[in-house]
Amino acid sequence: MKALDSELGLLQQVIPVLEEIVDVPIRCSTILSPTSDPSSLNDSKSQILFAFCRFIRVVARVFSPLVMTLDDLQWADTSSSFDLLEAIMTDREIPRTMVIGIYRSNEVGKNPRLGEYLRSLEDPKDAVDFVTTRIEIKDLDVNAVNGIIQDVLACKDDAQ
């Protein structure tokens, strides 16, 4: 984590519990401050994206292969989350990483940015050096839920 010293301070401003996660004291050298200047906002955004990618690079080297599961993407904000996801997925220095994005297909229309992002992943002309696979899971019926509960609790349903 020493290699991330300057980025950890920046990331802690976005993720307050980061110091507990990395179990290392973090000193903050860069302060993010709200501003209305568009160039300053772009600089801050670029710094955060770079810091996150550096952090994920280190984590992916320690925990390899790294699998990240992102649930409820239909509720993701309209820009920053997808920009971060794209930065992570296209960073060639992040080794052996799988990103699993989960969303409710019936909610995609409520988040146009998610729809655009999903289409861009499937567009061959926009393809980057990663593979996408879409798996659609239908609603679970009562028997399926009951089976999952039985598996988790390691018990059988005597009523059947």
Give a concise summary:
The protein has 160 residues and is mostly helical. The protein has 6 helices and 2 strands, in the order αααβαβαα.
Can you offer a commentary on this structure?
With 160 residues, the chain is mostly helical. It has one domain (2-153). The chain is built from 6 helices and 2 strands; from the N terminus they run αααβαβαα. Strands 1-2 form a two-stranded parallel sheet. β1 (66-70), α4 (80-90) and β2 (97-101) form a beta-alpha-beta unit. The N and C termini lie far apart (54 Å). The model has no long low-confidence stretch (mean pLDDT 80).
What attributes characterize this protein structure?
2 strands; mainly alpha; globular
Give the arrangement of secondary structure elements.
Layout: H1 5-14, H2 18-22, H3 38-62, E1 66-70, H4 80-90, E2 97-101, H5 112-122, H6 142-153
Parallel strand pairs: 1-2
| Low-pLDDT residue intervals, each spanning 5 or more residues | none
Structural class, judged by helices and strands? mainly alpha
DSSP strand count: 2
- SSE order: HHHEHEHH
- Radius of gyration over all CA atoms, rounded: 20 Å
Instruction: State the helicity in percent bands.
Output: 40-55%
